[in-house]
Records
---
Amino acid sequence: MKRLDADDPCPARDGYVMPAEWSAHARTWMCWPCRIEAWGGPDGLLRAKQALARVARAISTFEPVTLAARPHDVAEARLACAGKVEVFEAALDDSWARDSGPTFLLGPGGAKAGIQWQFNAWGNKYQPYADDARFASRVLAAAGARIYEAPLTCEGGAIHVDGAGTLITTEQCLLNPNRNPNLTQQQVEERLALFTGARKVIWLGEGFSDDETDGHVDNIACFAAPGRVIVGVPAARSHPDYEPVSEAIRRLAAARDAEGRSFEVVEIVQPERLKLDWRGRPLQASYVNFYLPNGGVVMPAFDDPNDERARGVIADCFPGRDILQVDALDIVEGGGGIHCITQQEPDGL
């Protein structure tokens, strides 16, 4: 991995920061599903495409959506989305725009830039991934945004920011030997600070059952506002994530943000029914894995008794936003959720 020298260009030194997701967007970027093994076969992939199209159409009621698709998938993607999206032809290996897409930044005067993280398909879990490893740069070029190459293996779903200097992540992901084996925790924090503008990094632990992403924070916790964090709490103590989530809550309770504030932790009870995915692993169904388009919330439903309860918690956290709940089970079968298939481009110059 490239070393980071004092005179290297990086976003924070140039006045760029990663804005909060609730800031105004220019558009949402998504990717048309294409890696058949992620969903266990052709039928699973077809259901994933249908589910992603539902999410894209829902988001398009709030803001423009640009959907990246491989050239031979363009017609299918356009038809499935009923003309509600702009299609961007691109070479793709997979479909998680949050992770392989750029982390967008805003700079002086609303100038737009973005990060091309090092990407290795969640710790070399899939091959090939060369097209996804350059996807962020292609998106940034299309958006007319400056490209910053980060010397850190990271995915967008591994981090959440409050837009005011605080970032949350997990040791399980960014300190994993399959991501950044030669970097210390301090070195990872320095890179996060220099490339996102974060002044405080809060680590939420490890031991989460999400083996696919190695504990992406966007399935565990997210900011609702500076000083306010939503945490998904398993419905039963027997759930494998109950203790790791309890530890994350303890850490948040003891922490302070970049401005010295203590955190208000809003607990959202996860689905009551523990289901297994097609691999036989616990299905990573999380109500925290939602997306914030302009003026709205697009959040998952899981055909579960807790769906409506979760909707109420999210509505309380984001008053004035329209809530659209979309069946996400067929997306989650592939290892991610609604937040994982979306990537916001901020409204800049």
Note: Residues 15-346 form a domain with the L-arginine/glycine Amidinotransferase; Chain A fold (CATH 3.75.10.10).
---
Amino acid sequence: MKQFILTVLVSNFLTLVCAAGAEAQILSLDDCMRYAVENSTTVGQKDIALDNYKANHTEAVASLFPSINGSVGGAVNFGRGIDPATNSYTNVTTFSNSYGISGSMTLFDGLQSINTVRAAKVARKMGATEAEIARDEVAMQAMSVYMDVLYYTEAAKIAREQLEVSRATLELVRRQKSLGIKSAADVAEIESQEANYDYLLTTEENNLALAYIKLREVMNYPPGEPLQIETNVNLEVLPTATSEQALVEYALENNPRIAASRFATEQSRLNLAKANGAYSPSLYLYAGYNTSYFVDFDKKAMYDRFGTQFRNNRGGYIQLALSIPVFNGLSLCSSKRRAQNAYRSAQLDEIAVQRAVESEVSQAWQEMQGFGKQYMQGQKKVSASQLAYNGAAKKFENGLISALDLQTAANTLLQAKSDKLRARLQYIIKTRMVNYYNGEPLVR
């Protein structure tokens, strides 16, 4: 008995500790969005891609500087060979080595290198914008799933309340049946209503569990760790945008998706300029400095020492080379054609993105206005439906209406509460989206 009591006490203590730990881990909407962004694999991939863009830009800038290479070589020859001193064949054993440094630099290549640097710089900006877009998309997805959790949490609460009311009504009807006030048909009708609410509660609880699973997935939350969210989300204040037109104009100038499409168009234009530059002659500068050492092991005395030969054998060169493209199998023509098509495609994509963003912004503005009105109307509808249900319940108790009429009033109240909840959460989402299109960050 003592062991059992001790086990119960320990179990209760651990439950309290876990509950306290879980309360400390309650996450708000912004916490969930921030966590999702910081732990998103998609955002991580975009950050890696951005680092590659930075490396490409650095490489393109460095290609404008001279290329310098050093060389060291050594060789031992056995048997028949050429004597460097007499330039005749002889059977000797010789050792030779050489040292050199050379460099090359492109003086002019039709501005291909310059346009490569410019395109790499634009690509770097585009990569940063794409990373920002990825963070925003993950934050939006987390916000949407978070709201799903809130909705099903409240929906399950509403269904549970309706189930409790239905069970209380069922107990009342059964007592009234025993007194001869209600019939068996009334009891069966209320039992059916109670079963429907029980089924609805089970459905909403299952939807809530699935919503939590989806939220964990979006947040990339560690498995096994408890996840609790803040269910009390306040209604958002109206955006600072004065009108839909002002909001659309701001979004068309500052939205990261539009900025990314503009960067893509500019990059394609620079690639086309680079393809045109390939038709131009290219001028290159080459320079080098070298020295060598040679010795015949059979006649070492005939050759100067290493230091003397190293100084005396020094030499250098400077060379200018002009490359003129004449015919290369139409590769330049094909490259230019592909660059032109890519530029036209980028221009069309930019137009499509602008139209899509304009439509999304206008839709978000209208939906925000609509859901705000629906929420205000939903409050009135819930109040009226609650009064109607209370009156129907009293009439049912007095035998003035049937159980079917009572169920109709209960379903109307349930639907009114559900509509109000959906309008409230959608209003919060759309208000956040409107603020986002107006320049405010999604994650605060």
Note: The chain has two domains: 2-38+109-280+325-437, 69-108+283-324.
---
Amino acid sequence: MDSESKDIGQGLTDQEKAMVRVKTLYTVLADKMEKDENTFLFIGRNGGEFTGNVKYLFLHFVKNVPQVTSWFLTFDKEVYKTLSAAKLPVLMYPSGQEELLARAGTVIVDSISFRNHLYYPLIAKARQVQLWHGVGNKKIGFQLQGASCLEGRDQTLMEDHSDYDILVSTSPFYTDEVFRKSLDAREFVSLGYPRTDVFFQNLDKNTLIGCNPTQYSTIKRAKKKGPVILFSPTFRDNGVNPLTQDVLHFGQLFAFLRQHNAHFLIKAHNRTIVEFDALPDNVTICDSDSDIYPFMPLVDIMITDYSSIFTDFLLLDRPVIFFWSDFDKYMSQDRGFQFPFEEMCPGPKCRTPEELFHSISEALHGRDPWKGERQKLRDKSFLHIHGGASERIERLLLKTNK
């Protein structure tokens, strides 16, 4: 061992040294393996969650693109068991499948987390397709350089958001104004998001993987009896409860909705703890790590705050209500926005429970003065507004495969 190698190894724990050895072995293996252009590897966010754009594009490929071999990679044993039971092609890491990973010619992701895992050297030289996980208003990628919440991580920020082969956006506006300024890719394409295809398709059993089937059945039954309202707030770093925002009394809200024969569906961010002692029968709480997209075509009104989820909901052209009692505090402490925030929110903006109740009542009675503004933002946010994203991405990937 030369002196430089000794210096590199000094100060590392045994675990860190073992990781360096594994990554080195993976790099050597990947260099030896010939890439197979017809092997596609799909990797969900974090440890391989079966949600989001990766989930829906994977299901599309398995069902409709038999000329390529598609695999879903996960760390999660429950995801592995579920997909295996559904007879879907899934790989568990680690499980001795390193050579298969190294052969993958195309890797499809919707976040940056895959680059921080031990297996990454195996797939580093594959074609990397970045679907991303949402179009909204918060700064992402390169635009976060210098942000206090990411102090000391500028170099990692650049590396994780760079060197993609293809980045999929939803419109020329978001391509030019957000993604080209936030990530580096050889090609940017405005093809749309696979997860929104579910708005325009009949569901099959695989589409509902990642959802609670009992809850889905409950919402389908509720939809036949009256309106369904989805409440989907994002998380907070400022100590405010995202659900109540420290002002909302749920007992009063539930009673108010019952008067209107409405069913209330709550889907919190997966970083939010949701606790209720008891719930009335007109309220359903989705698991925070579950997939909400199959539910959304059943939703008549969405209530949110700073979450980007409403952008996808624009494709359904239904009322959106913004509830943010902590607006001033959130704006002063958050990492920042790419556009004037309120200009990108086509709906009533409520700061008190009274304002929220009034806006809900107006929407339930069919009064919708924001319809025109929603459609303007929809057309800016989406080049394609009737689904078909998976088919468009499929055609591009197969066309450029060689």
Note: The first strand starts at residue 36 and ends at 43.
